[in-house]
Amino acid sequence: MSAVPPTVRTSGPRPGRGRRWAIRAHPVSWWTLLITSLAILMTSLDAAILPSVLPQVKASYGLSDTAAGALNSVFFVSTVAGAVLFGWLSDVVGNGYRRSWVWAAAMALSVIGGTFTFLLASSWVAFQLMRVVMGVSRGGSEPTNVAIVGEWWQVENRGFAVGTHHVGFPLGQFAGPALVAALMSVMSWQATFLVLPLIGVPIMLAQVRVGTRRNQERVYEWIRARGLTTPLPSVERAPAAARSPFRLLRDVLAVADVRRAIMVNFGFLWCELGLMTFLVVFLHDRTTMSTGAAVLASGASGLTGWVGQIVWGTLSDHIGRRPVLVVCVAGWIATTLPLLLVHTAWQAWLLLLLWGLFRNAPYPVIYSVVIDAAPEQAGSSMGLMIGITTGLGGAVVSTAAGWLIDHWGWGATFCVLVAGPVLGLVPLLRIKGAARRPETPGSTPA
After folding, report:
1. 10 - beta bridge partners?
2. pLDDT for position 163
3. In the chain, which stretches have pLDDT less than 50?
4. Fewest CB within 10 angstroms: 24, 80, 238, 323, which?
5. What pLDDT sits at residue 242?
6. Is 261 in contact with 373 (CB distance < 8 Å)?
7. Dihedral, CA atoms, 40, 46, 48, 53, nearest 10 degrees?
8. Where in the sequence is the domain holding 70, given as residue range(s)?
């Protein structure tokens, strides 16, 4: 194995001269990117299945709207537990190729959940239990997945890699409901959950096959030979077995940019989760669209979302994370508030397609900030990020948005939701942004 130069560590990319726009990487890095992108697509499909079959679920179990909403809250609360637990485990087991083992375990829970939802769907208790299992899987697989991407690509192209791997989200946001609708025309609603094991098992096998020690050594040798920066000082890093989850989380929260990134991420998700929960209702109420047309239009942002993620993620490698996130805040304001003036279908489609250029874009850039700032605790950092923002945010914002609509109307609701990313500018403008600096191997960036 190649010796590790003592001065190649960096907490992130340095904007400025010398940065090539052409993306080059080792073939194994590209394969890892493809596999993790498919894993994110599976995560997005998982999130889309229940809302798409919710009318059938309500009818099968005799649920009220309140009970149906509580069922989704159970999923989000379970996401918190999975994100923190598996994020910690992935750091304890070890960085790099070792993370694939923890990731496979988290993905396996989704496969199990999808299979037993189909087999035991006649039982309401079993159905709820499987929602818990799948929530833990969602929370555990995403942070580990992001950490894997960060550790198999050179630092100079981290924004591109994380942004590209996240294209599964916008694709799933549009394709998920369409796929479920097609499947339900030929099979029961319970059978739609079998999509998860059918996709998940091949993805798990591929990652275990590609994510080996030898492959990571080859990737790091390729990176060093071209004068680029390896994500970690060495492939051989000792697992953090002696560190408790509380100590790991304490160390993560001690990094100022991680704390700021969590607040920025929460602001974006506050707006997105609240808006998407009631977007179909809003479009149906405020335009001439039927319910079916509103459902289709609600996924329009997914058609352009992949473009925004790749473009803004790549741009953040060149001009820095913070400027790109400021542009995303402006883009969200410019494309969401005008929805209040929408009265026709074409207006809704136009604005939602434009929102897609910004909707998913902030998250991979924010995730890159976290990995830049705490590369040695990437799993715990991402677990804490996703647990607090997606899990707790999803459990709270839907109820808050519903209350605002009932008591204050759509105008006030949109303003409160958009206030999330706007207030996120306060911690965002304090993010230092990563700068290249020499460090000794094994040191942790402050």
Report:
1. 436
2. 80
3. 1-18, 241-242, 434-446
4. 238
5. 46
6. yes
7. 170
8. 27-232+243-428
E strand residue ranges, 358-397: none
Q: What is the pLDDT of residue 375?
A: 66
Is there a contact between 365 and 312 (Cβ–Cβ < 8 Å)?
A: yes
Residue 287 falls inside a structural domain: yes
**Quick one: the chain helix, strand, coil %, rounded to 5?**
80, 0, 20
Q: Please give the Cα distance from 282 to 167 (Å, whole number).
A: 26
**Is position 7 within any domain?**
no
Per the domain annotation, does 440 fall within a domain? Answer: no
Cα dihedral 301/344/50/165 (nearest 10): 0
pTM of the model: 0.70
Q: What pLDDT score does 21 carry?
A: 67
Q: What is the pLDDT of residue 236?
A: 64
The pLDDT of residue 20: 64
Going by C-beta distance under 8 Å and a sequence separation of 6 or more, which residues neighbour residue 391? 76, 77, 78, 79, 80, 81, 83, 139
What count of other Cβ atoms lies within 10 Å of the Cβ of residue 2? 12
C-alpha pair distances (Å), 174 with each of 159, 167, 290, 348: 24, 12, 18, 15
Q: How far is CA 318 from CA 154, 227, 245, 321, 438, in A?
A: 14, 17, 35, 9, 20
Q: For residue 98, give the CATH number of its domain.
A: 1.20.1250.20
**Alpha carbons 24 and 223: distance in angstroms, whole number:** 10
Does 143 fall in a domain? yes
